[in-house]
Design brief:
Chains A, B: It is an enzyme of class 1 (oxidoreductase). 2 copies of one chain form a homodimer. Chain A is mostly beta strands and 662 residues long. Chain A is built from 10 helices and 33 strands. The longest helix of chain A is centred in the first third of the chain and has 15 residues.
Chain lengths: 662, 662
């Protein structure tokens, strides 16, 4: 029983080659530039049929974004790899696809080498050792008529040769805008340097500042704290998980570890102790609208999954850096512009961690304790989207909880500011550098299949029983009011009633509690998008305006803001799907949760510069009346024989001077 | 430089003996029963003076609760141990002190042996091997005139000899009420078994059920999952901390690890990199009102710090069970009724953990990454309050964040229920057993001293700029509105504006950002107490009605609901202190945060029985403009040389059958 194939396996390099060959054969001799060749997931019906009977054949298909004949219009093709045929292929003149590396590099190069840009740089009168680099940003829509593919290039000055020199600490005060197809320089924006939108027409010589660096090579050995001692994690018996292809078993969990360029890791066909829980759990979208109204910053609104992709931008992870302990890695594949598969090594790491005490009870009459530790399985990736990093993790535990964790880190997006100026739109994080306030609004998509496909979404409010002297003579009672959602839509969280959203299977009753079996969503209550309904920011990311969304399942409705977010003018995802007049009760239903953080770099900002310490957010899915008892009751009790913990001796903990250098 | 003494050191056994001897000498020959002998913390002025000049003498004092001559009235004495004199000693006929073990055991024994109780038990016609035990509960006030000291004894049936037999799975349907002073049985409550308040007058024979057990001895070896492999944490170079007496240094942090019977561990005189941060951070109170109006359950409202104490009920922790890795333990002391000090071993554990990635950035141009891991210092205790456990931890990290984490675990409080009955007040968690809905409302007290004692509390709201076409032509701008709190009071959280409360030092400006140096509170937005203002539940725990409280510092104002909570009729803490008309801006100010969870065991409950998996809550204090840059910029980069991580080989992770037995 070696590698098992599964209909939701990531696309393989062989499959990429087949799909590309089919396309090339079809359109020969016209040249095709490939942007994306990735798995088109099969219809859910087919996957369920296959799970019932594994001899069922499920066709493998690819979703392809491409440009034919150098056309500025992107094409989209759906290719049946198994049957060797192209199912559809059409140009989408109105859609802008995600960024691909080939395109990005061409824009980057065009900007770096354009005489007008070079001429602007000259005006800065930089020291001879300085270099200027640029980050081509996706161009947030501010004009419904715009159809060109635009990139706003933000310029930065690199002041030393270290490969980790922090150019974000030295932003230059101008920003060229390029057409990615013609590679034409359209115009150069001067960046505002004061509180208002006014800009300087003439470039001034650069006012030297010392960049704030994080590069160990620049900081030098003596910069670092010397008293951090090693902490190592060992699993002498090996891991507790089993890997067969992309199928993972761990502590009664079983799931398929999918991966794609857009979403990164995805958990599919998730079960616990043989019972179906979720068909698919994924990070569906993330938008970052900036709250700085000064042109061109009003155009900053990244959709980091739709515009580029958490998979495409995933780092190659390495032992001892990103992952501590006993680690299993998984690879991914993307395509070159000519369709050749390119290996993306170690884009996912998987390992076990000890998260402290999982449960404990002491019989105080005799002091006897039972302790179970909270062993977790962490499946993690790191996406670098230019200046910023997102660490996305799916975390399973032995109490049958599934957590989705996001850590935001990396370098805040910076802009130049005049010395002494403080704007209402951000914080000065270093001399001459400002970081603008922004929001990060994520959406997690949860496709439940709790003991079967037909589920309902229910919300429950805790409300006091008031003024009912017969029922509640002492005024202490509260009750739970339950509402079953019947129609798709956006729904609210209410902290004042501890509102909880649950996925239940109304056909399955828990014998002990008498309630329907279910899982509840531990949501992250967050401020929703602040931009008003008339703004493009809002229209493009309607999903970010409500914390909870419910839709009826349809194949290929995976992305909260729709398939194409780059320069989008409207949300073609939840904004549309949630308006359908259809029943979602006891149906194939999908729950979506929008959460995030308002990153006010001023004044509550933390001066998280140069690199910001992680800001963690965790969404949890927890069983509610799904099991007959605590599902971790059978976890072996914590014991010293296995844990081999050690006592700090009084002397040892005082030997500060013995601290070894790290 | 061995043990250093500090004015905030916990009381020592020698000091206990001295204080007790002073009391005994003073009142001789009258017998004294001691309830509590603990440190009375010195005035803050004295501690600050001592920190300026360590030759300053700060008197050591004890706070003593006692009963003289067997009086039902508790006395309170303040004893100056250093000067050898009793400063005050008075009877408090109107206050009920916390439970002490001596008293608890006497009530327990009186209930177990009372002929009327035995006669009730007989009516249950239990099998000969069964035993009945009782949990004396503090008696929640339902009558303002009551002055007796009452305990409500909840009765449970123990069906096997295992020391961890789960009697909470078999509650008996009656509950005697005792006077703790006279040990008189006052009455016996019959417990309601249906949805309404009606009870059965005649005891019926017990209807046999199988208890739901967590005891490994009862479950047997074959019950446990077999595939959990060992995970061990080693620190071959020893810990990164230094301990001198109760003074701890770790990664630029320095603090005094205080401890007392009421609060358990307390962090005092906390500094980072030599700069003062907090004078004192502590868990101040916790109340658990139950939402079940059926008598006698309406009386269930524990104040687990004031009624008993997180220190007093702290477990003795042990290597490999409660703590994984390289561990340092600290002891505490309580007194016997005769005043003898009793050692409470290992009531605090301290160790380092790796919490994943602390920050990361990859230069996507060349793939070069810097990763810093999130090393944390965890200071933890476990309090067992009869059926329930609270795991309280203070967690420090290298980015200068201070986290206060609570894990709720243990066994939910149970009551008998008729077969087939489902009440609106809780969930049936096992046959014949219900767990009532309740709230856990904690209060954390934060006494800031950010670069000095005079600080202010400010809250900030993020609000969109709307309808200002000149300032915000594209409708994307948002700004931060800041309000400085001038008067004490209770304040609200507003998620829709991402409201954040900050402690700042208005006299110290961050040179980079131009803002006042500060720390912000990452609050836990929670539903506040649901019981109405007319209820005793509310009156006793006014602190639980608002998430944020601000007061001006006064010595000995430490406990959110006041000093005496047992059978209290009103909140004598924040309810009073927050009404004083005094300035709190740029003053010695204290910030209090109430948070918690509404534990709806039905219907969103998780069937967390027999022992519930931890429910985690974390409050964080994070720097905001306090430092010039990310304070963890100087943490050595993560590297394999130190971390010694290992790769899971394909073969290894598939060898499921090799799983060793645990």
């Amino acid at each position: 029983m070696a590698t098992m194939s599964h209909p939701l396996d990531p696309i393989s390099p062989i499959e990429i080659r087949k799909a590309v060959a089919l396309m090339q054969a079809c359109f020969s001799p016209r040249p095709i530039r490939f942007k994306v060749v990735d798995l088109l997931e099969p219809p859910k019906d087919d996957v369920f049929a296959w799970m019932e009977d594994r001899t069922q054949k499920v066709d493998r298909k690819a979703r392809i974004y491409y440009h034919l004949d150098g056309s500025p219009n992107m094409g989209k093709a759906l290719v049946n790899i198994t049957k060797g045929r192209i199912e559809t292929a059409e140009e989408l003149p109105d859609a802008q696809g995600p960024v691909d590396y080939w395109e990005w590099e061409r824009v980057h190069e065009a900007c770096n080498t354009h005489p007008d840009v070079i001429s602007e740089i000259k005006k800065l009168q930089l020291p001879p050792s300085a270099k200027v680099v640029n980050d081509p940003w996706s161009f947030g829509t501010d004009n419904a008529e715009e159809r060109r593919r635009l990139f706003q290039c933000y310029m930065y000055i690199v002041l030393n040769d270290d490969p980790e020199a922090n150019h974000y600490s030295v932003p230059a005060p101008f920003s060229p805008v390029f057409d990615a197809h013609t590679l034409e320089l359209l115009w150069i924006d001067r960046l505002p340097l004061g509180a208002g939108a006014e800009t300087v027409e003439d470039m001034q010589p650069w006012n030297p500042v010392k960049p704030v660096e994080y590069a160990a090579g620049v900081l030098g050995e003596s910069y670092f704290r010397q008293d951090l001692k090693a902490l190592q994690v060992n699993q002498p018996q090996g891991p507790s998980f089993t890997v067969r292809g992309r199928n993972i078993s761990w502590q009664k969990w079983n799931f398929q570890l999918s991966w794609n360029l857009r979403e990164g890791p995805v958990l599919s066909t998730v079960s616990y102790d043989g019972r179906s829980l979720f068909y698919r759990v994924s990070m569906s979208e993330m938008t970052v609208p900036y709250g700085d109204p000064r042109t061109p910053y009003h155009r900053k609104q990244a959709f980091d999954l739709g515009d580029s992709g958490f998979g495409l931008t995933s780092n190659t992870l390495s032992l001892g850096c990103d992952c501590l302990g006993h680690i299993k890695y998984f690879d991914g594949y993307r395509v070159a512009s000519d369709g050749q598969p390119i290996l993306m090594q170690n884009v996912i790491c998987m390992h076990e961690v000890d998260e402290g005490i999982g449960w404990k009870h002491t019989n105080f009459r005799n002091g006897r304790s039972s302790v179970v530790r909270d062993r977790q399985l962490v499946i993690q990736c790191t996406a670098t989207v230019a200046n910023y990093e997102y660490i996305l993790a799916f975390i399973l535990d032995q109490a049958a909880n599934l957590h989705i964790e996001v850590r935001a880190t990396g370098i805040v997006s910076t802009m130049p500011v005049k010395a002494g100026v403080h704007t209402p739109w951000g914080t000065v994080v270093a001399p001459g550098v400002m970081a603008a306030n922004h929001q990060h609004l994520f959406n997690v998509r949860i496709d439940p299949a709790l003991d079967g496909r037909r589920n309902s979404i229910v919300y429950q409010d805790c409300v006091p029983v008031r003024d009912d002297p017969k029922l509640d003579p002492f005024g202490c009672a509260f009750k739970v009011e339950s509402t079953t959602i019947q129609k798709p839509g956006g729904y609210d969280i209410d902290l004042n009633t501890s509102r909880v959203y649950k996925m239940i299977n109304p056909s399955r009753t828990n014998a002990v509690s008498g309630n329907s079996v279910g899982y509840k969503l531990h949501a992250i209550p967050s401020q929703m998008i602040m931009m008003g309904p008339q703004s493009f920011n809002f229209k493009r990311g309607v999903f970010a305006s409500k914390p909870i969304w419910v839709t009826k399942y349809k194949d290929d409705e995976l992305y909260a803001a729709g398939e194409f977010t780059n320069q989008s003018r409207e949300d073609t995802g939840l904004a549309i799907w949630s308006k359908r007049d259809e029943n979602v009760e006891n149906e194939d239903v999908v729950l979506w949760h929008t959460f995030g953080l308002t990153h006010v770099t001023r004044p509550e900002g933390k001066l998280d510069f140069p690199v910001m310490p992680v800001e963690k957010m965790m969404v949890s899915l927890k069983p509610t009346s799904f099991f007959d008892m605590n599902p971790s009751n059978d976890v072996p009790r914590s014991n010293q024989n296995l844990n081999q913990s050690t006592l700090v001796e009084a002397k040892e903990s005082m030997c500060h001077s013995k601290a070894s250098k790290i």
